[in-house]
Amino acid sequence: MNIPTPHIEAKKGDFAKTVLMPGDPLRAKYIAENFLTDAKQFNTTRNMFGYTGTYKGKKVSVMGTGMGMPSIGIYSHELIQFYGVKNLIRVGSCGATQENARLGTILMAQGACTESNYAHQYNLPGTFSAIADFTLLKTAQEMAEAEGFPYIVGNILSSDVFYTETPEWKQWAKMGVLGIEMESYALYCEAARVGVRALGIFTVSDSIVTGEATTAEERQNKFTNMMKVALETAIRL
């Protein structure tokens, strides 16, 4: 076991078994400072902030991942393979592709579609269906229901492209895909490969359908319903 890794300077034992994984390192900082007790920062390598503290008495970590499948693939792989993390909960933002997914709605990714070639590395003889861990998904759904937060459970698209030349989102929307983000397919692949749990939870930050959008500051600091759902899920594992 080679730790610290090239991307994480944490030592053995610095991570909890459950890690929240926002793409934005400043969202990791916000969660640590506003929700965790006695949070200690253990990673600043590449300015990808990581913290461990307690939430309602239970040890929880939060670690930024950066944008895109290659980036979250690195961090999730190292957390699982080198630090022994067992539960990975992505907390991110997404663009809605369905009209009923309004700004601020929580989307829970039961499955992740992709146009990426990420799963090619596994040399599979077909198409891999990347799905969330059922226990994590069920717990998160129950937490959102108990709090009265608006949420939708379903399929999302993990895309390699942010600025696309063609309106391909409409074709995915016809298949019932709720929204587009850029990481969860890789996260689900990494978790499935070694039998650990993963879940993607997102707040709708903009709507491709209606053109509505939140600000960068709101995306960093205001998606607290999603954060609460993830943390309440974390302490029940």
How would you sum up this structure in a few lines?
The chain is of the alpha/beta class.
Write a structural description.
Strand 3 (50-55) and strand 4 (58-63) form a beta hairpin. The longest helix has 14 residues, at 134-147. With 237 residues, the protein is of the alpha/beta class. The protein has helices spanning 25-35, 69-81, 134-147, 169-174, 184-194, 216-221, 224-234, and strands spanning 18-21, 37-43, 50-55, 58-63, 87-96, 106-114, 130-131, 151-158, 179-181, 197-207.
Topology record:
Layout: E1 18-21, H1 25-35, E2 37-43, E3 50-55, E4 58-63, H2 69-81, E5 87-96, E6 106-114, E7 130-131, H3 134-147, E8 151-158, H4 169-174, E9 179-181, H5 184-194, E10 197-207, H6 216-221, H7 224-234
Parallel strand pairs: 1-4, 1-5, 5-10, 6-8, 8-9
Antiparallel strand pairs: 2-3, 3-4, 5-9, 6-7, 6-10
Most strands sheet: 5 strands, mixed, barrel
Strand content: 25-35%
Number of strands: 10
Q: Please compute the radius of gyration using only Cα atoms.
A: 17 Å
Fraction of residues in H or I helices: 25-40%
* Unreliably modeled segments: none
Estimated structural class: alpha/beta
Instruction: Trace the largest sheet across and list its strands.
Output: 5-9-8-6-10
Spatial gap, N to C terminus: 26 Å
Average pLDDT for all residues: 96
Number of helices: 7
